[in-house]
Amino acid sequence: MSQLIARLLLAMMLVPTSVAFFLLLVLALVAMRGQPGWFHVFAVWIPVSAFVICYWLWIWKPVVRWSKSRIVLTVVAWVLAAAVSAGFGVMLGRFMREVFPPACAAGALTQLLWVLATIVIWRETNAERAERVRSVGAATVACPACGYNLTGLRETRCPECGASFPLEDLIAAQADRLGSIEQ
């Protein structure tokens, strides 16, 4: 099994694993205190958030090109996800006139929004992919329209943007691209 497949399988296990961890903590809390309030559910979401963050980083840290901006954006994404989720939880709580279900929904939404944001923030850019492919000694062929790496494809149509090029135009665009990269 490739490392990518293993990472994807582990990523799919994040939701059931974190839900099980959350339910385990809530059941322990209910057994000790009865019906939990906002503060108690918030106290449960802290270790669940730490688990989700650590688990997600454990899976993807080795393959993400970490930069200062990616680190800052990752932290900002969590803060924004928590703020949006808290607002959602408060509105839902006023509508439902209950505490527990909205607090659970808000906590789950925080984790979901953060994971979705990291998918966008941590995504490999075209330049990073080209550099990675170059570092292993492979020549790259990029789509002249969107920059998608066409290396290994059997046709001159880009699967990313759908643009199609005659072979001569594609070769000419690569020469232009390589000339601008070297400068």
Describe this structure in words.
By secondary structure, the chain is an all-alpha fold. It folds into 2 domains: 121 residues, no CATH class; 56 residues, no CATH class. Helices cover 71% and strands 0% of the residues. The protein has 7 helices and no strands. Helix 4 runs antiparallel to helix 5. The longest helix is centred in the middle third of the chain and has 29 residues. The mean pLDDT is 85.
Global shape: elongated
**What string gives the helices and strands in order?**
HHHHHHH
- Which range best describes the helical content: under 10%, 10-25%, 25-40%, 40-55%, 55-70% or over 70%? over 70%
Number of helices, where a helix is a run of at least 4 consecutive DSSP H or I residues: 7
Q: Radius of gyration over alpha carbons?
A: 23 Å
What is the SS-derived class? mainly alpha
Q: Beta-sheet strand percentage? A: under 5%
Q: Report the major sheet.
A: none
Measured between the Cα atoms of the first and last residue, the distance is 40 Å
Q: How many domains make up the 3D coordinates?
A: 2
Total beta strand runs: 0
Output mean pLDDT.
85
Uncertain spans = none
Question: How would you summarize the topology of this molecule?
Answer:
Blueprint: H1 3-12, H2 14-33, H3 38-60, H4 68-96, H5 100-121, H6 126-135, H7 167-182
Helix pairs in contact: 2-3, 3-5, 4-5
